[in-house]
Fold this sequence. Notes:
- The chain is 28% helix and 15% strand.
- It is α+β, with helices and mostly antiparallel strands.
- The chain has a two-stranded antiparallel sheet.
- The longest helix is centred in the C-terminal third of the chain and has 17 residues, at 64-80.
Amino acid sequence: MQKVIISEKGQICLPASLRRRYGLKKGDKLGVEEADGAIVLRPLPRHPLLALRGKLKGAGGEKLTGTLLRERAADRERERS
Length: 81
């Protein structure tokens, strides 16, 4: 059995071996419930779209936001002409 310490703010630090085993990363959420006098933590499913964040890039590795802003500026320029 591994031990954790509760901080003044009620926070705990999960041991690295458990974080690795369950693939937990910063920002992941855990469900907390009580069962038979024990506190149970369960990893909550991640939103599938969040897993794609930062994966899509424009041509040449450019961020899509930059591409969109450049295209919008070109559209405005064409409208003025």
